[in-house]
Amino acid sequence: MPDEVNPQEIIGFLKPRIGARFRTWLKICSHCGICADTCHYYIANGNDPKMIPSYKVRFLVDLIKKKGKVDKEYLEKVYHTVYHECNMCRRCTLYCPFGIDIALMISLLRSLLFSQGLAPDGLVRAIENYKKFGNQMAVTEEDWVDTIEWCEEEMAEELVGLKIPIDKKGAKIMYTVNAREPMFYPQDIMEVAKIFHVAGEDWTVPRKEGWDDTNLAMFCGDIKTAKYIVQNTFKRAEELQVKQIAITE
Amino acid sequence: MDLYTFLYDLATGPLLWISFLTFIIGSLFRAGLYIMASRKMDKVTHEHFSLKYVFLGLVRWILPINRSVKKNPVFTILGYIFHICLIVVPIWYVGHISLWEDSRFGWTWTAIPDEWADYMTLTFLAIAVFFLLRRIFSKDIRLISTFSDYLLLVVTALPFLTGYFLSHGTLENVSFFGENMELIHMLCGELMLILIPFTKLSHFILFFFSRGATAVEFGRRGYSV
Amino acid sequence: MGYTPKQEVIHSVELFHDYIRDGRIRLREKIKEPTTVQDPCNVVRSGGLADKNRRLAEFLSEDFRPMKYQGNYNFCCGGGGGAMPMGGEMRKYRLKCGKIKAEQIRETGAKIVFVPCHNCIDQIRDLSKEYDLGIKAIHFKEAITELMEIPPEMIPEED
Q1: DSSP E strand boundaries for C8-127
Q2: Cβ <8 Å between B144 and A50
Q3: pLDDT digits (tens, 9 = 90+) for C2-29
Q4: Which of A81, A101, A118 is the last residue before a domain boundary?
Q5: Domain that holds residue A169
Q6: Pairing of strands C112-114, C31-37
Q7: A126 and A227 part of one domain
Q8: Hey, are the CB atoms on A88 and C145 less than 8 Å from each other?
Q9: How high is the ipTM of this complex?
Q10: CB nearest A30 (choices: B72, B143, B203)
């Protein structure tokens, strides 16, 4: 990322994205502290006040007040909070009297950091893979199909007539997996094939990209790639004319 | 004309109008701005809008039948009592109603008994003090508190404190306060009304939108919060 | 995401639950050891499957023990929001905040934890090591394939 932070860029990024809800939340949060012990970070860190959800989004108020005039160090502080101190699990929202959605604000801050070239290496690597291969683990189409066929062979020995239909048009369900499955846990694919077979389900998996139902781009606020990943999946579903898209556990 | 008369005329005349109009128009503006901005930028709320979830969410949180009450019974119940007193006393206190009746509007409605108003005011003030102490002494709340949190708590409590002094003649023998309590009380009330639309006090109306938006957000995921 | 899909998206938990409920999958037996189930944020809080998730776990267990806050109000395992794929930089933070989940699991006394999420399962397996929980975290799939009745015509003939 560049050493200099451009305030106009920051404000220019935030302004069109801070909708009515965000503005209201930042305004009316009464700092009552009810959210404090709803957060697992707060409790696990010995009730550390710095882990109070409401405190974690102070940056948003601050950035607007400062009109984006912050330095790189400041953004790194934001990074630490929004990545290392929040899972965006939304538990705090359920207890907030105003229903303030902290996770959405954290997500906006992550997006802002991404626009400034600040994102976790692990997620950036995954994003590169999504762009190149359509899945987070850089599995090629060939490897994917090989894995599916291998799983099918293995399972057909256990269950008579078991098939893993690839690109079956008009199937009821298009099944998608986590890209870690073909990579590390082919067992998962075999198991689901068994269940579908016994249940007599009409299912298929897509050959081309779109079979990975994870979306790590979403986590670091890369909305463009996140959208691309989702659309890939729906494009396949459209082509295969399925009724439902099922996602793995 | 001396300063007192000038201020008194101001507080009972133009300033009274200004504060009520600021409060009413400002709050309507807040609501209008919310709706406009949300139409444009929070499409998700409108795409998935469901009256059922909004209604359920509002009922659950306006009444003490939500998870937060179960989790923090003391703090939340005090919060509910605080808000009930805050709304009931200024509107149904007999002294205020008679002012409305004498005004050009001539409006009148049934008052609550004086003792109620007294007890509710004292309860309100006690809770306000508790909230203030909590803000100061709890290391959690202290960290997240801003200057305006302290200020607005004081601004909200002052009309009650001065109102109590005024109706009981508590500081009658104290110089300055003795003569000016009515004026002070009016100015405090007017200050609060004026600040409502511009500060977090606007939650009195934005609460409904925020709660509603979140109700829709979780409602579209299949359950009611 | 500004895209109105024509297809319904359905989570495996819902599918599996419905298969068993509707008798499309029959179970030979249930797990005898005490079990509990994690409520992944994406499946439960943001997926609306709190009830089905729990009921599926109950279908499969003889001794199901709900966690405190089971359902929509459950705690995050600490691996969500991209924490797992962030890798090394996040490891120490996620193991620390996962203490809450570890204690919740320990409290139930369960030996098997159903975890219908890849993120959560990796985190909970790490937590089991870190906090010495002595549990086995499994996907529903694994339990269902082990417990389900296989129709006779699908059983291969022995040579």
Answers
A1: 8-11, 31-37, 61-64, 112-114
A2: no
A3: 456 688 999 999 999 999 999 999 999 9
A4: A118
A5: 122-247
A6: parallel
A7: yes
A8: no
A9: 0.93
A10: B203
